[in-house]
Specification:
By secondary structure, the chain is mainly alpha-helical. Helices cover about 70% and strands about 0% of the residues. The chain is built from 31 helices and 2 strands. Strands 1-2 form a two-stranded antiparallel ribbon.
Length: about 675
């Protein structure tokens, strides 16, 4: 192929320091010795995880106590937080002496806890620790707060500070939010030495489930997974109308499902997809919006769903497969909406596909990257059929790295160590935030607020389900700002999900609802972190990219309400009801896309100038009404929804026809 805009299948530039990228400039630029330290620590944590999850018994020929394992892994991760994240921009290029002191303190404290793991359980240190244990717990508490600040920012720090201290002043609060009061030393040992706070569901899920998927996601990127999926998408869709943007939807969705990080995904696939979109006529802002939406949507796409699905399974006590199946329709509706909007936008603006002679050949793409599909299929098989959620990503990662060594992209020792160090950075970020979130969960548990908060929210909503859902959506959105999707979900699952379930909503639908709204901050201004990352690649105003992403992702703001009000969209219910809900939702998404982009397939442009906003608004509302679930908690009949939708649709079409006639008459008169 000549003058191809598509790079050959190849891993990313391992020699480039990721900290040079604008969107992730908050990471410390490490010298070689510190990179080596990160690699060693990551290797140690990975070895511990493999030993524990596979029950290999490398230590004393027996499986290590879960408590001892958690202390060791958490200590390693916290050390990596203080290596990776600077305390201030002034030391972003070096590790200051006080960070080294903190690292030594962490090593000492967590080694002490790991050594005494048996006594901590047998002697119930959670309730009556020795003086040294209390002192070390207080120091650990402070370290967790600082690690949360470095990994998640000041908002995380202040939220965790106030709520982790809550048990100290809970008995002095107004009755509606009052709880059991405790002295500070009892709170400290509960947080650090118990099983419901620091080492509760957040870090436990990370250490036993999410860990392996981080390894898999990073290995996929460093072995060329990003370019492969981009090339595969170009070979399949690049020649179609608006093909470059459709490629971004396909490739970023796949990568996002496996990496679980919208920002990481943007920075992996964006440098390839955004220039291609620009070349074929898409504006910088639109290209950035497409990439941000596609990368964020990958988090909710089966089979992996960015590892959040496995944490959800732990909360609900159901199998991962049940969650993955339930997520099929909502994620398809979202990506279908993106695809249809791009198609309508391209048709309205006359944007063509890419020349076929500049596109990679599908056969050649498969020949050079077949093993990515094979490993992905292996991972899916182990997850769905063998139900080995904890071990599957480690096995898939091992196969990927082994097969990669027999290709032209095989790794040498230097590249492998860079991959390991990159894995450590992602692990440190997630562990730092999850450790802090764990303190909040612990405070709610020990004060009894976890059980009463649901009733308080129901009281504030006046037992009105819709009001409660809007309150939940707003809360989920705000708390999702600055957090990873998994961290935001864990916090919301403790605080908000019980209230939704108590209001009579389906448990699975309630948890899916908060997961969706928790990740919407990635594409919604004024924060829109995924859109801002895409803006840095597209070299456009962050706010412009954010508004474009919000407009393109419009359907995702409504999908959670649709499935929580009628779980048929989660494939729960009879075949007839499920089929009807999916059919109306799909048709509704087509009409919504037409209204938002001003072009209806088979009809043409919808209105011109400012008057053209009327038919576009009519069609957008028509699609929303049609996609809204009949029956369920709203109790609206299908006939009523079809009538209202049909009326709005007819109004928009008739106005457009009238405007076309008026414009034709004006032209003839001229």
């Amino acid at each position: 192929m000549s003058n191809s805009i598509i790079p050959p299948i190849a891993p990313p530039d391992e020699n480039k320091d990721d900290s040079e990228l604008p969107a992730i400039g908050r990471y410390r630029q490490l010298a070689i010795k510190w990179r080596a330290t990160m690699a060693i620590l990551t290797a140690a944590a990975t070895f511990l995880a493999i030993n524990q999850i596979f029950a290999l018994g490398f230590f004393m020929n027996i499986t290590m106590l879960d408590g001892r394992y958690l202390y060791l892994v958490t200590g390693i991760m916290l050390i990596m937080v203080f290596i990776t994240f600077p305390s201030h921009h002034s030391n972003i290029n070096y590790v200051p002496w006080y960070d080294k002191v903190v690292m030594l303190i962490i090593a000492g404290i967590f080694s002490y806890f790991a050594y005494n793991a048996d006594l901590i359980i047998l002697d119930a240190w959670e309730y009556a620790a020795p003086p040294l244990g209390i002192a070390l717990a207080l120091v650990t508490w402070a370290i967790i707060l600082e690690s949360g600040r470095r990994a998640g920012g000041w908002p995380i720090f202040f939220i965790v500070l106030v709520l982790s201290l809550y048990p100290i002043y809970a008995d002095k609060m107004p009755d509606v939010v009052a709880g059991i009061g405790m002295p500070i030393h009892d709170v400290a040992i509960f947080h650090v030495l118990g099983e419901e706070s620091l080492f509760g569901v957040a870090l436990n899920s990370f250490a036993m489930l999410v860990f392996g998927f981080i390894l898999f996601g990073v290995a996929l990127q460093h072995t060329g997974g990003g370019p492969f999926f981009i090339n595969l998408a170009f070979a399949m869709l690049g020649h179609k109308r608006g093909g470059a943007a459709k490629v971004a939807v396909f490739s970023s969705g796949l990568m996002g499902s496996m990496s679980g990080g919208p920002i990481t995904n943007v920075l992996t696939t964006g440098p390839l997809s955004i220039p291609a979109m620009r070349r074929t006529g898409f504006s910088r802002g639109y290209a950035a919006g497409v990439e941000a939406c596609a990368s964020t949507g990958g988090v909710m796409m089966p089979p992996i769903m960015g590892a959040t699905a496995f944490v959800m399974a732990s909360f609900l006590g159901i199998s991962y497969v049940t969650i993955a199946i339930a997520a099929i329709v909502p994620s398809f509706l979202y990506f279908f909406g993106l695809y249809m909007q791009i198609d309508a936008y391209s048709a309205r603006n006359g944007l063509k596909g890419l020349p076929k002679d500049e596109l990679p050949r599908l056969g050649q793409v498969f020949k050079e990257g077949w093993y990515f599909i094979a490993v992905f299929a292996l991972l899916t098989f182990m997850l769905v059929y063998m139900q080995r959620e904890a071990t599957a990503p480690f096995i898939a990662t091992g196969f990927l790295l082994i097969i990669n060594q027999f290709t032209k992209h095989r790794m040498n020792l230097e590249k492998f160590m860079l991959m390991v160090a990159g894995t450590g950075r992602l692990m440190a970020e997630l562990a730092g935030i999850l450790a802090a979130i764990g303190l909040i969960v612990g405070s709610l548990a020990v004060t009894g607020m976890a059980g009463t908060l649901a009733n308080d929210l129901l009281y504030l909503a006046g037992d009105n389900v819709l009001v409660l859902l809007f309150m939940g959506a707003a809360t989920s959105f705000v708390l999702g700002i600055g957090m990873t999707v998994t961290a935001a979900y864990i916090f919301l699952a403790i605080v908000l999900a019980p209230a939704l379930i108590s209001a009579g909503l389906d448990p699975l639908a309630s948890h899916m609802f908060i997961m969706y709204w928790g990740m919407l901050s990635f594409i919604t201004p004024p924060v829109a972190l995924a859109a801002f990352a895409a803006a840095s690649v597209a070299q456009v105003s962050p706010m412009r990219a954010g508004w474009e992403a919000m407009r393109l992702g419009t359907i995702i703001y409504f999908i959670p309400f649709f499935f929580v009000l009628n779980p048929a969209l989660l494939l729960q219910g009879g075949f007839g009801e499920v089929f009807l809900m999916i059919s109306t939702a799909l048709l509704g998404v087509v009409i919504i896309s037409a209204g938002l982009q001003g072009y209806l397939i088979g009809f043409g442009r919808l209105g011109e100038g400012k008057p053209g906003l009327f038919p576009r608004t009519c069609l957008t509302l028509s699609g929303l009404v049609l996609a809204a679930p009949s029956g369920g908690l709203l109790g609206l009949s299908l006939i009523l929804l079809l009538s209202v939708s049909g009326g709005l649709f007819a109004a928009g079409i008739l106005f457009t026809l009238w405007q076309r006639k008026q414009l034709a008459t004006t032209r003839q008169a001229a």
